[in-house]
Each structure stands twice: as structure tokens, then as C-alpha cells.
Amino acid sequence: MLPPGTGAPVQQTPLPTEQVALPGQAPAGGAVGDIQIPTESGDVLQLHEPKKYVGDGVDQRELHRLTPEEKASRRFRKNLILAVVGGLVLIATAFALM
């Protein structure tokens, strides 16, 4: 909505009718962090995200995104630990009030 008194006509922009891939968007089957850019000559430039590491020496580990299975496993483990600790607190409180 326009503020009162502007009197400017509202221009309607047409909606797009087809979906096209954005330039530099990774395809669905590509690896995470890989970007493919088509060139005018028909070639495809493929860019790889550099790997990130933390730690030094034998403690050095590569950072990566968790898969949905890893996320679900960690969430289950966290929920299980929280339920056990909560149950123990309830039991300890019940015994303390007796």
C-alpha cells in the first residue's frame, strides 16, 4: 500500500512462468561445496570449497557438515541423556521429600 496522497499508479510486474537454475548453483547430485559455472564456450568451470581443519598434528580433524543420519543419531543420544538425568533428578527429589 502507498501512503495517502501520493497518487502514484501501482505497476504490476508479471510473474515468471518457468523456473531456471541460478548461475553458479550446485546441481542436486553434486558434492557439498562444489559449484559448477557454465561458460559461454560451453565448458563448465567446477569450483571446490577448500577443506577446513582444526587442531594440530595428530589432533587435526577435518570439519564437515553432518549428514541427516548423523544429526538424528546425535539428537537421539542427547535426548536420551537428558531423559536419564531428568529422571534421576526426579527420583532424587522424591527420596529427599520422603
**What would the principal axes of the Cα set say about the shape?**
flat
Element string (H = helix, E = strand): EEEEH
Query: Gap between N and C termini, in Å?
Result: 66 Å
Q: Strand portion, in percent?
A: 15-25%
Largest sheet: 2 strands, antiparallel
Which structural class should the secondary elements be placed in?
Answer: alpha+beta
Poorly predicted parts: none
Q: Mean of residue pLDDT? A: 81
Compute the number of helices: 1
Oligomer: single chain
Adjacency order of strands in the biggest sheet: 1-2
- Beta strands, count: 4
Describe this structure in words.
This protein has 98 residues and is an alpha+beta fold. It has a domain at 66-98. The chain is built from one helix and four strands. The longest helix is centred in the last third of the chain and has 30 residues, at 68-97. The radius of gyration is 27 Å and the shape is flat. The protein starts with 33 loop residues before the first strand and ends with a helix.
Provide key terms for this protein.
98 residues, two-stranded antiparallel sheet, 4 strands, alpha+beta, 16% strand
